[in-house]
């Protein structure tokens, strides 16, 4: 049974081989969802590594990139030790926009009391600081 399993794994792994290279990010292009990576082994710079998972590595970050079928033209980011931003979005909504809207609604919160409407939240400055910091984590 073990021989059959080993043979099956060799057959499947041979269909779509993926190599992994470690390196350092030399450039990031968020508008293109790509980065460039200098492999640790001294090979030529790998250009236009796809940023498929919403992670934007920092320049100088140590990364792992995958190569589909061992082709340098089909590369993608696997992991990074330092990131500048995340993108979390669907076709309908961006997490950044949603979170900004939630914070804005909280900052405008009033409640009806026995003597009329309440004022803004007493911890409004804390919410304002959170709203200012949020874009540091996410991109649209």
Secondary structure topology:
Elements: H1 2-15, E1 18-29, E2 34-39, E3 46-50, E4 55-57, E5 62-68, E6 75-80, E7 83-86, H2 95-107, E8 112-113, E9 116-117, H3 124-133
Antiparallel strand pairs: 1-2, 1-5, 2-3, 4-7, 5-6, 8-9
Helix pairs in contact: 2-3
Report on this structure:
The protein has three helices and nine strands; from the N terminus they run αβββββββαββα. It is α+β, with helices and mostly antiparallel strands and 140 residues long. It has two domains: 2-84, OB fold (Dihydrolipoamide Acetyltransferase, E2P) (Beta Barrel); 95-136, no CATH class. A five-stranded antiparallel sheet has the order 3-2-1-5-6, with no helix packed on it. α2 (95-107) packs antiparallel against α3. The longest helix has 14 residues, at 2-15. The N and C termini lie far apart (50 Å). The model has no long low-confidence stretch (mean pLDDT 86).
Alpha-carbon distance between the termini?
A: 50 Å
Succession of helices and strands: HEEEEEEEHEEH
Strand order of the largest sheet: 3-2-1-5-6
Structural class determined from secondary elements: alpha+beta
By CATH, the topology of the largest domain is OB fold (Dihydrolipoamide Acetyltransferase, E2P)
Mean pLDDT: 86
Number of separate structural domains: 2
Morphology call: elongated
Largest sheet: 5 strands, antiparallel
Number of helices: 3
Report the uncertain regions. none
Proportion of β residues?
A: 25-35%
Radius of gyration: 23 Å
Which architecture of the largest domain per CATH? Answer: Beta Barrel
Task: Report helical residue fraction.
Answer: 25-40%
